[in-house]
Amino acid sequence: MKITIGSETLNIYDNIKEMPISVKQEFEKCLWLASGIGASFQDFEVYYRKIDLFLAKNRISEAREQLRNQRQLFLMAINKIDPTVLAFVHLVSDWKIENEDQALEKHQYLLKLGITAKQVESLVTDVKKNYIHN
Fold it and tell me: Are 7 and 115 in contact (CB under 8 A)?
């Protein structure tokens, strides 16, 4: 499938089964990161509530784990890294991503092109649906 973002036309995998296994693994890792740690400033509030609950029950190790996750989310947020956009990077079949630095460069490139949250969410969701239903 082809999509246009800004001035760039990109070829996109529209099915996980078409991807090389290494690309599929990176795509899934980014989605796992987004669902597990979060992808936005709104997710901070979730961590505050979880930390409060764990501390109220004297579950210190779980509270520390939530603090580590919150720190990771904070670092990604201030560096303008969205794990869902990183997952999208791996959907671009034109790009051969060999390491995390290249993935981050393409992430920033997509942001500069003006990719929207709607585009990312729509395409990522469609690819996941194609995988589940096929």
Answer: no
pLDDT single digits (tens) 50-97: 999 999 999 999 999 999 988 888 888 888 888 889 999 999 999 988
52, 37, 53, 47: which is closest to 67 by C-alpha?
Answer: 47
Task: Give the mean model confidence (pLDDT) for residues 21-46.
Answer: 83
Which residue's entry shows tokens 């996750």?
Answer: 69
Q: Between the CA of residue 20 and those of 13, 34, 85, 101, what are the distances in Å? A: 10, 21, 19, 19
Residue 76: phi and psi, rounded to 5, are -65, -40
Domain coordinates in residue numbering, the chain: 20-36+82-134, 40-80
